[in-house]
């Protein structure tokens, strides 16, 4: 069994599962999607046929009862992450849960506890972290080429405001731009800094036409020694997802920081007094690498580089950002 493919079940057929995660898992020679479930059996059957998946279930419970399934991917709306992660753990399934892992840090801690008790792996699906370019970016920082770190700027915005029925616009379902895309700059800054922020301040646009969720937010995360992340995120603005790392002697520019839609789009640039150079990044599928990371963890080959505690810490920052935006105050962590 230890050398066999990891057999996956998919709980739900969200757009991210259809577009990216299912093809990513199927692109791995170590992983296999054996089943998919939806609360609508016809939808599950159509998804199974579209992706060449052997088994379709008309309920999530049926999939979790399938003893052949070893791991599940959960792309359900944010408010369902805790329930179905815990139920999957209790069924003995390893869990890849879509970001943000929960609605708050307390929920994330409950999920971590349930998975630890069941002895299963839990990974938050920040696929960008699995791509080799972030190791390459961190190596440039560690090398001293751009000098001492002075700050990070990042953004993730898109315009979906016209899709009135989108789950991102349901406040009680965990809607809003900070949950949906702001989590990426926050997560990346924590990764690149190698530490947790000390305080956050966020201003946001809460739209009464979108169930009062934050449709746009701009924020400041304060780290040690006066270094900060300045970021913005939104679901009511033109698309962009850049990241910039500023040092005393240079700048790292990442034009497409979290998604790489085309060959070469993952490349980044280093600007110093010596000039500007382009760093070529391998064109590899981050979703496939994410599945392979799960395989190695489940098979005991390698521990996850970022475990559930990292996800809990990320949620603590998101909690503080939402509180700051609502109350219009600086929040110390």
Automatic annotation (TrEMBL):
It comes from the Bacteria. It holds the Pfam family GFO_IDH_MocA. Residues 7-124 form the Gfo/Idh/MocA-like oxidoreductase N-terminal domain. GO terms for molecular function: nucleotide binding; oxidoreductase activity. InterPro entries: Gfo/Idh/MocA-like_OxRdtase_N (IPR000683), Gfo/Idh/MocA_domain (IPR050984), GFO_IDH_MocA-like_dom (IPR055170), NAD(P)-bd_dom_sf (IPR036291). Keywords: Oxidoreductase. Residues 136-253 form the GFO/IDH/MocA-like oxidoreductase domain. PANTHER family: OXIDOREDUCTASES, TRANS-1,2-DIHYDROBENZENE-1,2-DIOL DEHYDROGENASE. Belongs to the Gfo/Idh/MocA family. This is Gfo/Idh/MocA family oxidoreductase. It comes from Paenibacillus soyae.
């Amino acid at each position: 069994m230890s050398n066999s493919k990891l057999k996956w079940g998919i709980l739900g057929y969200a757009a991210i599962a259809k577009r990216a995660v299912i093809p990513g898992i199927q692109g791995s020679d170590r992983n296999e999607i054996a089943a998919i479930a939806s609360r609508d059996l016809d939808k599950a059957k159509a998804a199974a046929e579209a992706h060449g998946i052997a088994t379709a279930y008309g309920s999530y419970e049926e999939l979790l009862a399938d003893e052949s399934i070893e791991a599940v991917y959960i792309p359900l709306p944010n408010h369902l992450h805790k329930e179905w992660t815990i139920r999957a753990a209790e069924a003995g399934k390893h869990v890849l849960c879509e970001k943000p892992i929960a609605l708050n840090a307390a929920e994330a801690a409950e999920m971590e506890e349930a998975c630890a008790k069941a002895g299963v792996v839990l990974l938050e699906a920040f696929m960008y972290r699995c791509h080799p370019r972030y190791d390459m970016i961190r190596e440039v920082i560690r090398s001293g080429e751009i000098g001492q770190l002075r700050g990070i700027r990042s953004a993730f915005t898109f315009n979906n405001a016209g899709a009135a029925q989108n789950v991102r616009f349901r406040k009680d379902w965990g809607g809003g731009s900070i949950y949906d895309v702001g989590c990426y700059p926050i997560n990346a800054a924590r990764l690149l800094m190698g530490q947790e922020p000390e305080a956050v301040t966020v201003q946001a646009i809460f739209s009464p036409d979108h169930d009062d969720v934050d449709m746009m937010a701009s924020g400041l995360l304060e780290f040690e020694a006066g270094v900060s992340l300045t970021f913005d995120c939104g679901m009511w603005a033109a698309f962009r997802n850049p990241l910039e790392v500023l040092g005393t002697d240079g700048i790292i520019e990442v034009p497409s920081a979290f998604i790489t839609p085309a060959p070469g789009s993952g490349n980044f640039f280093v600007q110093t007094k010596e000039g500007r150079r382009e760093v070529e990044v391998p064109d590899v599928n981050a979703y496939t690498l994410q599945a392979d990371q799960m395989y190695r963890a489940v098979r005991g080959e390698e521990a996850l580089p970022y475990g559930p505690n990292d996800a809990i810490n990320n949620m603590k920052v998101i909690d503080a950002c939402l509180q700051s935006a609502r109350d219009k105050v600086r929040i110390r962590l």
